[in-house]
Amino acid sequence: MSRVGKAPVPIPDKTKVEINGSYVKVTGPKGELSRTIHEDITAVLEDNQVIVTRSSDLKKHRSLHGLTRSLLNNMVIGVSDGYKKVLKIIGVGYKAEVKGTRLVLNLGYSHPIIFQIPEGINITVEPKVNLVTVEGIDKELVGACAAKIRSFRKPEPFKGKGVRYVDEYVRSKAGKSAVGSGA
Fold this sequence. Notes:
Blueprint (H helix, E strand, L loop, with lengths): L2 H4 L2 E2 L5 E5 L2 E6 L2 E6 L4 E6 L2 E6 L4 H22 L2 E8 L4 E5 L2 E5 L6 E4 L4 E6 L4 E6 L2 H13 L10 E4 L18
């Protein structure tokens, strides 16, 4: 039995889950999410919890069991609390600003990078400390947006410049001048 899959998904107060066959809809104070789960996996609402079961012990069904439970749990957490990723921009002249539905990034290139903010995502920028906060109810979309913003200028190990997550550790390397001359 899957350790992840057999754990029930707790439903907090002010959050409502509707299950109609393989269609699951979760509504909470932050918004609403819906998803269609695989037909071989069943989700049942019991005692303010969602219990996920599988039809057989095939490898595919075992894999889908834990995945489905995690996806449903992420939906419940998203509509009740939301998700947040914080990025730090490090570099002289590197900055970010939000203009309408676009994030404008100056990351040392000859041109600014314009990132269209997707529907359901809220991006805020603290200009003094160069922090970009990506918030939303869909964990997958929040992570994808943060990863896309980071990919515009990944942190480099020699000077440490670039866009990184706040909790990310980037190992510094010594440059050419630090290596012995070897004469």
